[in-house]
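Blinded run. Sample ID left blank on purpose so nobody reads anything into the name before looking at the predicted structure. Input follows.
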Amino acid sequence: MIGQKGLPARYGGVEKAVEELSARLVQRGHHVTAFNRREDGRPQPAEHRGIELKYVPAFGGKHMLNMTQSIGGTVSTLLKHYDIVHYHALGPCLASPIARLRPSSRLVVTIQGRDDQRAKWSRPAQLVLSTAAWMSANVPHGGIAVSQQLQREFRDQFGKETVYIPNGVAVVPEQAISPEDDPLIRFGLEPGRYLVNIGRLVPEKAIDQLLRAWSKVDTDVRLAIVGGSSHTDDFVDRLHRLAAQDERIVLTGPVYGPGQDRLFRSAAGYVMPSLLEGLPLALLEAISYGLPVTVSDIPPHLEVVGSSDPGQRVFKAGDLDDMAKQLQLMVDDLPGERDAAQLLHNRVVDEFSWERVTDKTEEYYESLLGRRHSPLRSSEKQLTRVG
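Blinded prediction complete.
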């Protein structure tokens, strides 16, 4: 596995997706290696949830960190036979030609989103990522798109077919948390009396639009924005200035582990105003907690929530008045919205289960390796090495 910053998952959706998929592949008898970024001062365990962890250097500032890490991981795959070398996201595929030096390995890329279209990158960086997108379509032996929209884009732009395998989700047990680590206590949030958004604070997430729309909503319910900068400090400063104008808004910064579980579990609802997404893991997670959601009408969101109804409100992307209208409908009847969201919860945890995702990924690996798929597991299955 190449492309995640590191495991255990801490940074974002890609890392969570890699960890959940890898752990389930290990349970099924495969050997999985994840190539992590080496970071001074951070622990470097040799394994996590049965996944072998290897560490490679990364250097060169925000434009080079992912590339140098991916090159280091890719070179390492040449030193040990891997049946599958699996890249996650577009940027890491810049290193994929190196992996083709071992002809017996099969290369796979999971397209998590159009990184080349993200506003945080400079024009030169976007051009490099456009090259990475072309390489994602043309160098690996196979491609996985996490949304049907991404599948269509790669077909239309590059003439390449991918398989649709979405990100997954699982219902998780409540995590214990001490009072000193409880974000509700730290930020003055009352259970059931706040809406939440969790994710990287980058322009395409449109949190600035959400804060402006929130000023139009008549409620004493609070809005918690959870996340940190992703090389977007100027944008985050702008969010802090907007939040300072409304005492109902709190920007918590990044929160991980039990703290994030607590924020999801105690929220009244989830809001996602994004202008650009792949298939957002945070949205699937919010639904797995039974939260009603209010989302923009971009295609990846609609693949999850469908039409606008109580418990799954949809507004026109970029339309602040429509966003405020749907948020007002949500906060005016939070208990009713929660009840209505149960049907969405039941469908999503079944349709997007990690077990289904792992089934489809495992079958795809085996098709690339020329093996016939079989339901055998663990010691009954031929060992596949995944890196």
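Unblinding after everyone has recorded impressions. The chain has two domains: 13-168+353-386, 179-350.
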